[in-house]
Known about the structure:
Blueprint: H1 9-27, H2 44-60, E1 102-104, E2 110-112, H3 115-125, E3 129-134, H4 139-147, H5 152-160, E4 163-168, E5 181-182, E6 189-190, H6 193-205, E7 212-216, E8 229-230, H7 236-250
Amino acid sequence: MLQLHYFERETFLAIWIAIFGTWAIYLLGKITLPHDSQLSHISVGRLGLALLVLAFTVYMIPGLFGAPLKLISAFTPPQTYSESPRGFMGTSNGEQKLPEGAEFGPNGLVIFTDYEKGLAYAKEVKKPILLDFTGHACSNCRKMENNVWTDENVSKILKNEIVLISLFADDKRPLPKGEQFISKSTGSEIETIGDKWTDLMITKFKTNTQPLYVLEDLEGNNLNSKKPTTSYDPDVKLYENWLKEGVANFK
Length: 251
């Protein structure tokens, strides 16, 4: 994706709220179309559906102000793709100083989107690296970020004990001409940033599935011997234990 920010999270939610809100009003009989028959009453079933649609509409409204909306997080643009990516009305991380080359990612986490910059910082602070192979349009990635990464114990590890490097496999921005190359693994032309990270996945980890998580030391060695990588799995405890094992092996 080119990340042009033409259709951000708030716009997406506003359209959904307008559609479902109008549908709820229609089901309640407050709006009629030219070919509708006259309604003297509405059935119990129609009333129940109207209330369900109305409740869903109300549920989405806080999302305009930064609420995570976990029930539909896999379908909406992520909070980072937003007019207020670091929160709204007192939830901003604006006072936190970012390391050079870093940015705010999901749930206010500090992330690097360039491997070399993230590695340099990890060496500086002497912490292990969590490679997060992800995608802007990856619904399972959003589920992990909103349902697993938000767990208190997992969040503490991600914030304090590792350096998080998020590599977007669907980033369509072109690489500088001097950095483009032919993949030794697939023989294809590597022309975009996303191509580069996809090729890294295939070459080093023999997969191109997102999300893919890998814990490495500062020399690029895997820290989890029994389970070198992990992918989409909503089991919070398993993910927490996997992180703890890798961090412990680094120490």
